Every structure is written in C-alpha cells, then in structure tokens.
From TrEMBL:
<dbReference type="Pfam" id="PF13378">
    <property type="entry name" value="MR_MLE_C"/>
</dbReference>
<protein>
    <submittedName>
        <fullName>Mandelate racemase</fullName>
    </submittedName>
</protein>
<dbReference type="InterPro" id="IPR013342">
    <property type="entry name" value="Mandelate_racemase_C"/>
</dbReference>
<dbReference type="InterPro" id="IPR018110">
    <property type="entry name" value="Mandel_Rmase/mucon_lact_enz_CS"/>
</dbReference>
<dbReference type="InterPro" id="IPR029065">
    <property type="entry name" value="Enolase_C-like"/>
</dbReference>
<dbReference type="InterPro" id="IPR036849">
    <property type="entry name" value="Enolase-like_C_sf"/>
</dbReference>
<dbReference type="InterPro" id="IPR034593">
    <property type="entry name" value="DgoD-like"/>
</dbReference>
<dbReference type="Pfam" id="PF02746">
    <property type="entry name" value="MR_MLE_N"/>
</dbReference>
<dbReference type="GO" id="GO:0009063">
    <property type="term" value="P:amino acid catabolic process"/>
</dbReference>
<dbReference type="InterPro" id="IPR029017">
    <property type="entry name" value="Enolase-like_N"/>
</dbReference>
<feature type="region of interest" description="Disordered">
    <location>
        <begin position="348"/>
        <end position="369"/>
    </location>
</feature>
<dbReference type="InterPro" id="IPR013341">
    <property type="entry name" value="Mandelate_racemase_N_dom"/>
</dbReference>
<feature type="domain" description="Mandelate racemase/muconate lactonizing enzyme C-terminal">
    <location>
        <begin position="152"/>
        <end position="244"/>
    </location>
</feature>
Amino acid sequence: MRISTIEAIPLKHSLEDGRGFGGTRGVTTTRTATLVKLTTTDGTVGWGEAFAPPRTVATLVEEVFRDAVVGTDPMNADTLADDVYTGDIVGYHFGREGVVQAALTGVEVAMWDLRGKQLGEPVRRLLGGQNREQVTPYASTMYITEWGEDPAEPMSAAAEEGFTAAKIKIGRSVDDDVHRVETAREILGDDAHLMVDYNGNYTPSQAIESIHAIEQYDLTWVEEPVPPENREGYERIRTRVDVPLAAGEAHFGRFEFTDLVTDGTVDIIQPNLGRCGGLAEARYIAQVATTENVQVRPHVWNSGVGLAAALQFASTVPSYPEPSGRAGQPVLFEFDRSENPLRHKILTEPFDPTGGSLDVPDEPGLGIDIDEDAVDEYRVD
C-alpha cells in the first residue's frame, strides 16, 4: 500500500449575525477546519485534521507535503515529524512553527488512519499504552457571547445532558469570575469536576487574585491563566496557589511541550491533535510528561476528525503513578458544546458525549466514516 494522492480541504461554517462566542481574548463568528485526505494505490482513504487558518494551511499541505508524502508507505507516519524538524520537509528554519506543525499533524494523523485500516486495528492499539474503551467527557461550555447569554443556561443544558464534568470561560474580572464559577458549581453539584479557562487574559497578579477568590469551589484545574509565552508568569502563579495548572493548547511539537513539562510549572498538558505535531509526537509528549508526573488531557475544539484523533490518543495516556486499571481519577476528555456542524455533520455517525461516558471507537484507524457530501457543503476552496 502506497499513498497515491493527497488533498487538503478547507472548511468553514459561518455563525448567524450576533451569535459570535469564545473566550476572554476574543469571540469567533466562524468555525473552521482543514481536512487532509490521503488515498492509497488500493483506494483506501485516510483522514486527518490540520487545525489552523484553513486556506493557509491547505496551501502548505499541498505545496510542501505533497511531494514528500505521495509514493510513501503509511507505516512511515512515525518519522514524518523528524523529517520536518531536520529540514527534509519545509526546512529546519520553519519546522517548529505553528502552521507547519498543524499541517504536519493533519498529514501524519491521516497516515495513522490508513495504517490502522491496513492492519485492521484502531489507532489506539497501534499507539500502545492504556488502551481504554471509555473516557469521561466534560462539557466545554459557558462561553463569552456577543448576545450576553445568562451563564446558567449552557450549564443547565450540560447538566441535563448528563455531563459529570465541565469547563467554563472566565477572566473578565474577579467578581465576574466568582459569579460564573459559583453558578456552574451550584448547577453541576458538589461531586462534579469543574475546570476554568482564562485563555491567557490575565497578568500573574490578576490570575493569583482570581484563583484565590474561586478556589473555594473545588476546581479540578485552572487553564491558561496567563498567555502561553509568559513562562515567568506561570512560575509566579505556581508559587502562590495550590490549584492544579493546565496549558498546552497553544504549544506545538515536542520541544515546546518538553520545556512546558520540565519547567515544572503545570500539572496538566493539553496537546491538540490538530496541531501538536501528530499522534507520534503526542505519544512522545505523553512519555515525557509521565517522567515528570504530569497528566495529559488533550485540548479538543476541532472538527469530528480531530476529535476522533484526540479520542484515540486520550484512551492511551498513562495513568502513572496510579496502577493500570485502578486509577482514581477519570480521564477527562473535552467535548465542545457550542455550535459547530463540522464536529458532527461531516461524520456518518457523530459522537455522543451525553450520559457521562464516551466510547472510544474500536473500528480500524480513527474509527470514523466521513460524509463527503457534508464536507463539500462546508468547503471553501
């Protein structure tokens, strides 16, 4: 089996006027993704997602990766990142940049999808590791909205859907942070996992003040309290608060994640399987994290393809230092509850996170089938 063609497919869904939403550093009025479609000489198709500006990353995939990938064996997925870093693809001056890492991820994940289909195994078995059959989805919700949504509404919806964990957006002011966290805790109940995401909107001093004000609500983690580049800020926060810190959605590749882990300033890292460098990179990142006793919980704000890749990966992450099969903490898996048809309409069988658990597909590859008519509906070539 050899790869015969590669196609990058930029997708876009526009929200209705006045229905933009997001975090404290800005709202979005569109949902986008770039799918990577690899076809082999025997007609097998593999899919991946590059999570970056769609037309830009699509051009990069087809201009730079086509010649490097067409004609190769999908079994070479493990070495694709090395070829980017050493300069065989792109050139070593640019290989670590975010858009390049997103393009690499889309192509590499599609190769793993082909690999699984070739061997008749789900990607999680090929990756090795824990090989869990289920994870615990958490509702990523309570966004900052253009229409001033009552924060109780999305949280009540998540509770009604059976979610036992949720992550909410905060970071506009300490008083607002307390109000939103208190609302979420009251609705979810005392036993639910509750996480907060600042999207890097605070200075270290502001973050410390806010965390001290909300830590009474038993937070599972605090995400990106300061910008990802503010490493000294993370260090300052770490010395002043006891709540676990999480980061990683804005980090790319093994080198940035290794620094994030070995700095000792976060308790949870969050690679995104649309831009972290691919499944082999994510596996390496998880191994580095394990050596420092840092948890791995992927960031997921992707289309259905990136979600499927993250789910396959999440099922394999180490439970160290807890013994396999007897872990006390659930593997929490992000499931966005905002409007995004690219998450469910492009899959023939969308994922269902309601009810408190999420099954990991056991079918070959990523375990998904793509509705290509739906893909064409959102295509923006």
